[in-house]
Write a structure and sequence with these properties.
By secondary structure, the protein is of the alpha/beta class. The chain contains 18 helices and 22 strands. Strand 11 and strand 12 form a beta hairpin. The longest helix has 19 residues.
């Protein structure tokens, strides 16, 4: 990538360009670019604008015109040319373009490179001393009332203590007012409202992407939630009602590279951040998760379908990992052995790897992302998270809470997609390690592909859980355990029990097991008495039904059939009642997978 290559050649070019994306209107695009620029240490200016079609934004270095002294032998045209060539607008090659396309504004980066150092203190830039239109109106009214510039400035600072303007600036504004200029529209640099370098808190107002219907799930790139420029989307569907909850756009390759570059750029500073500071952010993060526990659980139930009590457990299990991350300081201590050999000491240190990535399945929308990024970032790494495309809402909410907790821009980034994004994560040389949870086939593919690039890889793949029931087992305790483990979460979890092996045969257990399974309340997860919710999609239900029928055709006995269950009020939901097969052999497809509970006798 050109930006990255130049950045490696010259350290002062490491100011990130704003993440590309789509915006509802021109003002939202400009605000996005302006806020992001301030966080990187530069200020953007409107270089050209056709209000209803295009806006071109450049970098305003805040410098002065060079060669301002008039030469005696210069003509008027030459002086104008020299003035324009020395302007601050042409000093920096950075440029981005916003174009209106199909009702939305599309942001693209024409040149993301700067040729100057970032401002150490953004308030040094001249735009920090400019007045807003409201302040200019107040200056006009106070001038008409007879107040002097110093008195006017004093009153303005009562409402805005961070105002950096001087009496000289008030004099200039008064002169413009006398000329009939009541606004600041001619001032083309975007006014700096805050220094975002040390601030990562979210706006008190709901972001625009949450206000749309259906909501478009954004990328998180460089500390900003940005709508993807991609028109390819996947609908996130409530499995109980079939209503579209949101849309997940497929992150483009340019957006993915921007996310990786943001993580790579943030890594040096984050690695050098004291572990105690990183721990404090994790302490605050776990407090915010507890605060928004209800919101997270409802998001999981709405997108995944599992019962609310299961959704609460999903978040609680992930929260335990965050609590563990709060105590990672002692686990990062190295080792030292003196005089291991004559005149030789040995020591080991633990260092962060760099940019890491996580690929998550749909089964646990909160727990599995929380397995991954809290530990990685507390250890000093930066992270690229790819949430499940079927239920990404919990990951986005967790990212919002992490930013609110004080996580610096670029440390955590989120991209969306399917095969293309997984391949991009495996192929990118800047990503040093990958964590994966999912099916065997995908895990083997990711492992092989990532290993060829020399990446570290960890995976939790596949499952086939058995319960071995001895003849002297407690009847009630065993039945409760089998039903809870076999049907909890509609069986859509890697810890689900799919096979019960009865030593001596299942004849004494079948009838009681069917009674317990039938007693489960199957309904939408949001209902207060729900025990078993729908499966994630219609395709998943069709596959389960197909496996059941194939098993029957292969000789299995259908003890309990849940294929034709209809839930009142949720007739279109993807509901499957508890299903039990008996006389199952190890060569049957239902045994090899884990969608239904199989009973297998063992005679000794």
């Amino acid at each position: 990538m050109e930006i990255e290559g130049n950045a490696e050649l010259n350290g002062h070019l490491q100011m990130l360009p704003p993440p590309p994306g789509r915006f509802v209107d021109r003002e939202e695009l400009i605000q996005h670019v302006g806020d992001f620029a301030v966080s990187q240490g530069y200020v953007v200016t409107i270089k050209q604008s056709k209000r209803d079609r295009v806006v071109i934004l450049g970098c305003d270095r805040g410098g002065v015109y060079r060669n301002r002294r008039k030469a005696s032998d210069e003509s008027s045209s030459e002086r104008i040319r020299r003035r324009k060539s020395g302007s601050r607008l042409t000093n920096c090659p950075f440029e981005c373009v916003g174009k209106k396309d199909d009702g939305l504004w599309l942001l693209t980066i024409k040149n993301g490179v700067h040729n100057h150092e970032p401002f150490k203190d953004i308030s040094e830039h001249p735009t920090a001393r400019r007045f807003s239109e409201e302040e200019i109106q107040s200056i006009k009214e106070m001038t008409e009332a007879g107040l002097k510039p110093r008195q006017i400035l004093k009153r303005l600072r009562q409402g805005n203590p961070e105002l950096l303007s001087t009496p000289k600036h008030v004099y200039n504004v008064k002169a413009k007012i006398r000329q009939g200029n009541m606004t600041v529209r001619h001032i083309r640099s975007l006014r700096i409202e805050k220094c975002a370098a040390g601030s990562s808190s979210l706006s008190a107002n709901e972001p625009s992407w949450r206000q749309r219907y259906p909501m478009r799930v954004p990328n998180l790139i460089g500390g900003k939630f940005v709508d993807s420029s991609s028109f390819a989307t996947i609908d996130v569907i409530n499995p109980a009602t079939q209503h579209v909850v949101s849309q997940v756009p497929m992150t483009t390759n340019e957006e993915f590279r921007a996310a990786v570059f943001a993580a790579k750029w943030a890594f040096p500073a984050w690695r050098n951040t004291p572990i105690t500071t990183r721990q404090r952010i994790m302490f605050r993060f776990q407090e915010l998760i507890r605060r928004d526990l209800d919101k997270l659980a409802m998001s999981i139930t709405t997108e995944h379908g599992k019962a609310l009590k299961d959704a609460y457990n999903d978040v609680s299990r992930g929260l335990e990992v965050v609590e563990h991350a709060c105590g990672l300081a002692t686990l990062q201590i190295g080792e030292f052995v003196s005089n291991v050999s004559n005149g030789t000491d040995t020591y080991s240190i633990r260092e962060p790897l760099g940019v890491c990535a996580g690929i998550c399945p749909f089964e646990y929308p909160a727990m599995i992302p929380l397995w991954m990024f809290p530990v990685a970032i507390t250890c000093g790494n930066t992270f690229i998270l790819k949430p499940p495309e079927k239920d990404p809402g919990a990951s986005i909410t967790l990212a919002e809470l992490a930013m609110e907790a004080g996580l610096p821009s670029g440390v955590l980034n989120i991209v969306h997609g399917t095969n293309d994004i997984i391949n991009a994560i495996c192929d990118d040389d800047d990503i040093k390690a990958i964590s994966f949870v999912g099916p065997n086939s995908v895990g083997a593919y990711v492992y092989a592909k990532a290993s060829t690039k020399g990446k570290r890889f960890q995976s939790n793949i596949g499952s086939k859980n058995h319960a071995v029931v001895m003849p002297d087992a407690s009847m009630d305790a065993t039945l409760n355990a089998l039903v809870a483990a076999g049907f909890g979460g509609a069986g859509q979890k890697c810890m689900a029990l799919s096979t019960a092996v009865f030593v001596g045969g299942p004849s004494l257990w079948e009838e009681k097991l069917v009674e317990h399974a039938k007693a489960l309340k199957v309904t939408a997860g949001t209902e207060p008495d729900a025990e078993l919710g729908p499966v994630i999609s219609k395709q998943a239900k069709e596959r389960i039904c197909m496996l059941i029928q194939r098993s029957i055709d292969s000789g299995a006995k259908l003890v309990l059939d849940g294929r034709h269950l209809v839930v009142p009020g949720y007739e279109h939901g993807n509901f499957m009642g508890p299903t039990i097969l008996s006389d199952v052999t190890v060569d049957m497809e239902c045994y090899k997978l884990h969608y239904v509970l199989s009973l297998t006798p063992v005679h000794v």
